């Protein structure tokens, strides 16, 4: 068990594990060692190596794959180290698991794969061999220090693909963005495609493939963990709402600290995930238990996604909705 204890400020909301919690949460973790039915794997976290477990999962049972694999960077995941390599070797690494994971997808299913600038070409190359690429989402990742000898890396990609270009689920109405209107336009004295409120002028807009409204989890956010590459709940919520129907099934083969499964649960979807690192699998389990009591997703309320730095407006809107 890695030593992940740190001295933290009183207001630090990072999710951590006590020794007693680790013992208790281990009861939630599962292992796959025989072929399983869909009902047997729903809403389960498997703490083992992906390639050891995947052949025991049922085929074609997943509506949505969300994959956040190790990028082609040297990184220490609480004792599990991934070492950067050349592009050819990284492509072969992706090929060793992606085709197997795609066998879990329903014929009308969708897939999203996360990557950075260094691994994006490899991910595109391998994905395009097996699925129809529909788009590349680029999202602004404003965190970390600047670089003295290079441009600061502040963007990441998510490749979106489908098995059947003529038949796949996509609900754009569920991922609308609520944005401030800075230059309101009126027709006959009335707002055109925007609304006036006492808190300002707003418009619901269709989402593009560039997302600048995402906040990376940090110490004061209740979803934060010590995982070094944790994805924001808001980011994953957009993928799930757009590409998985209610009561559908979301699968994450590199679960990390559990964000995909946690968000699926909060949004009324089933989930299944695999994570090799026990500490992160336990964090996932704790977060799933927390989601039973609190289904909030920062930046998403009243069925829309809000811009950054609008938390006070979101709370005010939620209060007004509850009073109606």
From TrEMBL:
Protein family membership:
Belongs to the N(4)/N(6)-methyltransferase family.
**Protein name in the entry:** Methyltransferase
Which InterPro entries does this entry report, sorted A to Z?
Answer: DNA_methylase_N4/N6, DNA_methylase_N6_adenine_CS, RM_Methyltransferase, SAM-dependent_MTases_sf
Q: Give the molecular function GO annotations.
A: DNA binding; N-methyltransferase activity; site-specific DNA-methyltransferase (adenine-specific) activity
* BP term (GO), one: methylation
Q: What EC number(s) does its UniProt record assign? A: 2.1.1.-
Cellular component per GO? cytoplasm
Keywords in alphabetical order:
Methyltransferase, Transferase
- Oxidoreductase: present as a keyword of the record? no
């Amino acid at each position: 068990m890695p030593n992940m204890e740190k001295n933290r400020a009183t207001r630090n909301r990072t999710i951590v594990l006590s020794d007693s919690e680790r013992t208790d949460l281990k009861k939630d973790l599962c292992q796959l060692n025989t072929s399983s039915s869909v009902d047997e794997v729903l809403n389960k976290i498997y703490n083992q190596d992906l390639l050891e477990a995947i052949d025991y999962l049922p085929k074609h049972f997943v509506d949505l794959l969300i994959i956040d694999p190790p990028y082609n960077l040297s990184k220490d995941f609480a004792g599990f180290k991934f070492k950067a390599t050349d592009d050819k070797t990284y492509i072969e690494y992706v090929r060793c698991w992606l085709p197997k994971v795609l066998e879990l997808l329903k014929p009308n299913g969708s897939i999203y794969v996360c990557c950075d600038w260094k691994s994006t070409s490899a991910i595109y190359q391998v994905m395009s061999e097996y699925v129809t690429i529909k788009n590349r989402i680029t999202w602004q990742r404003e965190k970390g220090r600047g670089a003295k000898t290079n441009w600061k890396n502040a963007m990441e990609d998510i490749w979106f693909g489908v098995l059947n270009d003529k038949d796949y689920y996509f609900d754009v109405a569920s991922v609308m963005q609520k944005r401030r209107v800075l230059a309101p336009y009126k027709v006959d004295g009335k707002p055109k495609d925007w609304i006036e409120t006492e808190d300002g002028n707003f418009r619901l807009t269709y989402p593009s493939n560039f997302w600048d409204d995402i906040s990376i989890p940090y110490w004061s956010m209740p979803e934060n963990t010590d995982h070094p590459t944790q994805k924001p709940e808001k980011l994953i919520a957009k993928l799930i709402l757009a590409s998985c129907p209610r009561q559908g099934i979301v699968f994450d083969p590199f679960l990390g600290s559990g964000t995909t499964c946690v968000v699926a649960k909060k949004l009324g979807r089933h989930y299944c995930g695999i994570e090799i690192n026990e500490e992160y699998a336990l964090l996932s389990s704790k977060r799933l238990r927390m989601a039973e009591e609190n289904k909030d997703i920062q930046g998403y309320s009243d069925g829309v996604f809000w811009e950054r730095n609008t938390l006070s407006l979101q709370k005010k809107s939620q209060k007004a909705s509850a009073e109606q």
